[in-house]
Write a structure and sequence with these properties.
Blueprint lengths: L15 H17 L3 E2 L5 E3 H7 L5 H6 L1 E4 L5 E4 L4 H10 L9 E10 L11 E10 L4 H17 L7 E6 L3 H15 L8 H9 L10 H7 L11 H16 L5 E2 L11 E8 L8 E7 L3 H4 L7 E7 H10 L11 E5 L2 H16 L4 E3 L6 H11 L3 E5 L1 H6 L1 E6 L5 E5 L3 H8 L3
Parallel strand pairs: 1-5, 7-8, 12-13, 12-14
Antiparallel strand pairs: 2-4, 3-4, 5-6, 6-11, 7-9, 9-10, 10-11, 14-15, 15-16
């Protein structure tokens, strides 16, 4: 027996409609905001992530699937979507096009970490990126986009938006110095990861999940107190626009996000319905990423949402998207009528109907039972008498009413009746 790899999960036909529901909402909302889809490779050169995501992050230091290919080159399965999109933006000369550049993606990504509810080694994301706009309106539009998407799938009342500013490199340097001064007396009592981050990036210490470290991080200096005037004005602009747009939020100084490329605005949508894995969507501004990858500086802002967590949230809230079911099942009572049912099914499918028919030689009783399992609204019964008349007996499975309908009028009849 070959088993599924640890930390991965099958999306079965019986539940795939939930994925389609979220993906369709993602595409609809993206279209409304002018974002067009991009598709990038599932693996990239390892240097893209070590330079772009940051070599002090857990993603790069602990979680990446990195290996040598047959040519001896180090490649990595993408752990997130932003770096790959940035690489594509630079490599395909999109910096020379009309700005802002807006794009979205629906991808699978990979991180080697301990599997748990809402956290898998292969996971799926809906993400969006906006390049070329540095003002607070770009941040506010991106957050409003995420807000509208969550409203589109029906979960907005169960999530909270948290925002923060982590400043620019200039004001962040002063903040990091203050953090070092604060944490230095406690380093011996903090975890190994925090001690490692102390010199490389002390802001990452604030994001530590160890309970012992939280008692120190809770009283750490706040980035908001160290913002330069330009960053403070930017953050006030974002807040003002969100308020004007009716997007409610809480300012949360503890948000730093887990990737090194973020600057200024960062945000998360969280839900109490998901327990420990409460974040369902997160993002922020990353104005320095493209220059870190060797391109000219280009402002950017974006977000990503985990599809698995969104499905968990739908289930927790008992939100059941409409599952597409068969419009009709064509039931043949004998060999000749089964052949006619097969041909009629093709005609009805060409008319846009979802049709099923018998492929196993079942009895009439077994076919009715199978049609019921499929959730078919109508059963089109064909037998010797129906073939001779050129009309089928159509049974409405919701009302149990039956009516004779000529073969040529079946599609129109079913389309009209399914609306009732």
């Amino acid at each position: 027996m070959i088993n599924i790899p640890k930390g991965t999960k099958d999306a079965l036909p019986s539940e795939i409609y939930k994925w389609h529901f979220i993906e369709a909402a993602a595409r609809r909302t993206s279209e409304k905001y002018g974002f067009k889809e991009i598709r990038t490779p599932v693996f990239e050169h390892t240097e893209l992530f070590s330079r772009g995501v940051g070599d002090t992050t857990d993603v790069v230091t602990k979680e990446m699937y990195t290996f040598l290919d047959k040519g001896g080159r180090s490649v990595t399965l993408r752990p997130e979507g932003t770096a790959g999109v940035a690489r594509a933006f630079i490599e395909n000369g999109l910096q020379g096009g009309a700005m802002p550049f807006k794009t979205y993606y629906l991808i699978s990504a990979f991180r080697y970490e301990r599997p748990q509810a809402g956290r898998l080694r292969e996971f799926h994301q809906f993400g969006a990126e906006l390049y070329g706009a540095e003002g607070p309106a770009a941040d506010a539009e991106t957050i409003a986009f995420a807000y509208r998407f969550l409203r589109e799938i029906g979960v907005i009342t169960a999530v909270k938006l948290h925002i923060n500013s982590i400043g620019c490199p200039a004001c962040r340097a002063k903040y990091q110095a203050a953090l070092k001064e604060y944490f230095r007396p406690h380093l011996g009592e903090m975890c190994e990861d925090c001690r490692s981050r102390f010199d490389k990036n002390p802001m990452r210490m604030i994001d530590c999940k160890e309970e012992n470290c939280k008692k120190y991080t809770a009283n750490a200096p706040r980035m908001l107190d160290f913002l330069c005037e330009e960053c403070r004005a930017h953050f006030e602009g974002v807040k003002s626009l969100l308020t004007a747009a009716g997007v409610s939020y809480d300012v949360d100084p503890s948000i730093v996000r887990g990737l090194d490329y973020y600057s200024r605005t960062v945000f998360e949508f969280t839900s109490d319905a998901l327990g420990a894995q409460s974040t369902v969507l997160g993002g922020g501004r990353y104005d320095t990423l493209l220059s870190q990858l060797g391109a000219k500086p280009t402002p950017a802002v974006g977000f990503a949402a985990g599809l698995e967590r969104l499905i968990m949230l739908l289930d927790a809230l008992n939100i059941s998207p409409a599952e597409k079911k068969a419009d009709c099942y064509l039931l043949g009572m004998d060999e000749n009528s089964r052949e006619k049912a097969f041909l009629l099914a093709e005609v009805l499918r060409s008319e846009g109907l979802i049709c099923e028919t018998d492929l196993l030689g079942r009895s009439v009783k077994a076919q009715f039972k199978y049609a019921d399992k499929l959730g078919a609204r109508f059963v089109v019964v064909l037998g010797e008498e129906e073939l001779s008349e050129g009309a089928a007996e159509v049974k409405d499975m919701e009302t149990s009413a039956s009516v004779r309908v000529r073969f040529g009028a079946l599609a129109q009849y079913i389309k009209q009746r399914r609306k009732v």
